[in-house]
Automatic annotation (TrEMBL):
GO terms for cellular component: plasma membrane. Keywords: Leucine-rich repeat, Repeat, Signal. The lineage of its organism: Eukaryota, Metazoa, Chordata, Craniata, Vertebrata. Residues 1-18 form the signal peptide. This is Nyctalopin. It holds the Pfam family LRR_8. SMART domains: LRR_TYP, LRRCT. It comes from Phyllostomus discolor. Residues 331-378 form the LRRCT domain.
Amino acid sequence: MLVLLLPVVVLSLPSAWAEKACKSTCPEACSCSSLERGCLVRCDRAGLLRVPAEFPCEAASIDLDRNGLRFLGERAFGTLPSLRRLSLRHNNLSFITPGAFKGLPRLAELRLAHNGELRYLHARTFTALGRLRRLDLTACRLFSVPERLLAELPALRELTAFDNLFRRVPGALRGLANLTHAHLERSRIEAVASSSLQGLRRLRSLSLQANRVRMVHTGAFRDCGALEYLLLNDNLLAELPADAFRGLRRLHTLNLGGNSLGHVARTWFANLAELELLYLDRNSITFVEEGAFQNLSGLLALHLNGNHLTVLNWASFQPGFFLGHLFLFRNPWRCDCGLEWLQDWMESSGHVTDVPCASPGSVAGLDLSQVAFGHSSDGLCMDPEDLNLTASSPGPPSETVATTVNMFSSLLSKLLAPMAPVEESTNITTGLVNASLSDILPSVGVGSSGHNTLFLFGSSLLLSVAQHVVFILQTC
């Protein structure tokens, strides 16, 4: 029995020793616990105004979030050969001395987010962090990133730097051969220059959403052949170069929603054979060029909602090869024969819904799925407006109405001819049409004969009857 227990005791000794060593040098305001790969030190919300003088040598992770730290001096954390993760989020850091992170040779993740007073980083701030893979600079109100700042980080894989004050894509990104993810949203960037992303051959995800991007230069993504996710939504783009996305053959998601694009060009997506999600919603698109989507055979969803589209041509893409969902709501669709193909596709695929009609008036307010299209004897489509006119209740043809109007006009001319010369007759007839009976009778005058009065009175009645008959005939 003793022999069986001996290995358990021997194995438990290092664990107990590590736990004791971890806690013996734990800073007073912090809590420490042993992990499989080292010691976890938690000093968050501890009210610290300076970095503790000593940490456990075995520390693998240190959390100093939400304190009042303002300054990091050289070798601020001493020598911690096992440290892999350091978090300094939500402090008041305003300056980091070059070399502050010396002595941390294995550091892989550094979080400096939400230090709004930082604003500037020295080019040698990250010296000696050759193994750093993740860097978080979110909401530090940085105006720029020195060109050589990230050159000290050859292993960097992920850069998170949104909510800053950049006006351009930081030049420090150029040449980061191992960078795979760059998050630069909400940073006031105004353009993506042709050299902004130079050398980023392993970049897989780039987020530039919610900036002020007005222009993407030709060739801006030429080195980004591995890119899978590109987010350019909620910017100020009104136009794109013809070959804006050339070379992005692995792209899966492209978000251009929330911009000011007025049309969709057939060259934009010509080479994006792997594209699965395409967002063009919330733009000002009025037309889509023929062939714009015809090569997107792998597309799972196309968002065109929230634009100014009235028609979408079948030639814009091949619906037979597009098996994904098509979102078209919030557009002023004109539901005539130009959209009959779309209705057929809605019924057959079930992947298109909610296409509200804005015109013509006979179907306004209906969904396209509810519109009835007729066909002539030779098989041609008939617009709903024409179909409704054809199917309306029968009435006198327009020729009959016109003939009736002419007959009454001729009769009135004969009745009124003896009363006045041609010019006066015309004036009297016009006056009778526009005047009421009470206006006509006083105009006869005291000196007029009873015969003339009776004649005018009868003529006015006859004209009134004629107007009612014509009105009834025209509205039948």
